[in-house]
Design goal:
Glutaredoxin; alpha+beta; single chain; disordered N terminus; five-stranded mixed sheet; binds heme C; 2 domains
Length: 302
C-alpha cells in the first residue's frame, strides 16, 4: 500500500510538471545581437543563472505598454542601481544566482533597424534580441506578445505566460494589478522554490506563424546569412587564412553552393557549430538565387 502511494505521488509529480520542464532548452549556442549592436551568446551564461526571455513586438500596444514594467524588473533583479548595493545580509548571500532578462523580437516583417530604433526610442533598459530568422521563437513557441519564459538555474522552463495580470483580456485593463507573475516566479527561484504557478495565459497580440501553405519570408544575405557567417564561420574563413574568405557579400555569394553542398573541412569548433536550422538556412539561400535583402537588416559590423 505504502509503495503504491509513493508510486502515485511520483506519477502525479511527473504529470503536473509543464510539458517541457525537463527539456534542456539552451543547447543551441547561437549569438543574437541587441538594439545596441551587442552580441549575446545564449550558451554563454554562468551556471546558476535564472534567464528570462520576453517576446515583444514593435506593433503590439500591450507589448509596448509593458516596456516600463520590464525596465522596473530589470532594475530590481538585473541591474540594481548603486544605492541599493548595500552590504548583503547572510540571507541575501545565499542568492548566488544571477538573473538575466532578454526581450526578443522575432518578426520576419520588421527590420533590424526598425526594431533597434523602436526600443531605443521607448528607452528599453534591457537587451532586445533581434531573432532575425525566428530561431528562438521556433524553439520556445510563444503564442502571444508579450509572453515571458523563465528558465531556472538548471536551464529548465519554470514559468511561461503573462508578465502580470494587468489585462483581464485585450482592451480590458484591471483597475489594479494583483498578480506579478514574472516577479513572483523569479523571486521564488531566487529562494530555491518553484514558482507559485508554472503557466498562465498571456494577454496581448497573437504571434503569427507561417501557415503550411504560405510562402515563407525570403531568406536573405543581410538578415539571415550574414549573422550566421559572422558568428560561426569568419573566425577561420577570412582573407589571409587557410580557409576561403566568407566575410563579404561577394565572397559569400560566390561560395553559396559550396556552403550548401559541402560540409566544412576545418577543425571541429564546438562553439561555432551551426544549428541544424542555420545549415538549412544556408541551403535555402543558395537554392533561391542568393537574395541580398534589405540594408536595414545589416547585422552590426564585426
Ligand atoms: C575553426 C575554423 C573553421 C570554422 C569555424 C569554419 N571553418 Fe570551414 N573550413 C576551415 C578549414 C581550415 C577548411 C579547409 C580549407 C582548405 O582545406 O583549403 C574549411 C573548409 C570549408 C569548406 C570547403 C569544404 C570542401 O570540401 O571543399 C566549406 C564549404 C566550409 N569550410 C564551410 C564553412 C561554413 C559554412 C562555416 C560556418 C558555418 C565554417 N566553414 C566554419 C575552417 C573553419
Amino acid at each position: 500500500m505504502a509503495f503504491c502511494l509513493v508510486c502515485t505521488t511520483m506519477l502525479l509529480a511527473c504529470c503536473a510538471a509543464p510539458e517541457n520542464a525537463k527539456a534542456p532548452i539552451f543547447q543551441t549556442n547561437y549569438t543574437l545581437f541587441d538594439q545596441n549592436a551587442l552580441p549575446h551568446n545564449l550558451a554563454n551564461t554562468q551556471p546558476g543563472t535564472i534567464r528570462v526571455f520576453v517576446f515583444l513586438s514593435t506593433q503590439c500596444p500591450i507589448a509596448n505598454a509593458n516596456i516600463p514594467t520590464l525596465n522596473s524588473f530589470n532594475q530590481q533583479f538585473v541591474n540594481p542601481p548603486p544605492e541599493t548595493n548595500h552590504k548583503k545580509t547572510p540571507e541575501e548571500n545565499t542568492h548566488t544566482q544571477k538573473v538575466q532578462l532578454f526581450a526578443v523580437i522575432a518578426d520576419p516583417y520588421i527590420t533590424r533597424k526598425e526594431s533597434a530604433d523602436h526600443y531605443r526610442e521607448f528607452k528599453a533598459s534591457f537587451p532586445v534580441l533581434f531573432d532575425s530568422s525566428c530561431q528562438l521563437r521556433d524553439l520556445l513557441k510563444p503564442t502571444h506578445v508579450p509572453e515571458a519564459f523563465v528558465f531556472d538555474p538548471q536551464g529548465r522552463l519554470a514559468y511561461r505566460g503573462a508578465i502580470d495580470n494587468a489585462w483581464a483580456e485585450v482592451g480590458k485593463r484591471r483597475p489594479a494589478i494583483t498578480r506579478h507573475y514574472l516577479v513572483e516566479a523569479v523571486t521564488s527561484l531566487l529562494n530555491n522554490q518553484p514558482p507559485p504557478i508554472d503557466k498562465s495565459q498571456p494577454v496581448g497580440c497573437p504571434v503569427e506563424y507561417p501557415a503550411a501553405n504560405q510562402t515563407p519570408a525570403p531568406i536573405t544575405y543581410r538578415r539571415d546569412i550574414a549573422p550566421i557567417l559572422q558568428t560561426r564561420c569568419t573566425l577561420c574563413h577570412q582573407p589571409a587564412a587557410t580557409a576561403f574568405p566568407l566575410n563579404s557579400i561577394t565572397q559569400a555569394t560566390a561560395n553559396a553552393n559550396r556552403m550548401a553542398t559541402t560540409p566544412c573541412k576545418g577543425p571541429p569548433h564546438p562553439a561555432r557549430q551551426p544549428t541544424p536550422r542555420e545549415t538549412e538556412l544556408l541551403k535555402i539561400w543558395a537554392n533561391s538565387a542568393t537574395p541580398q535583402g534589405d540594408t536595414a537588416d545589416w547585422p552590426p559590423a564585426p
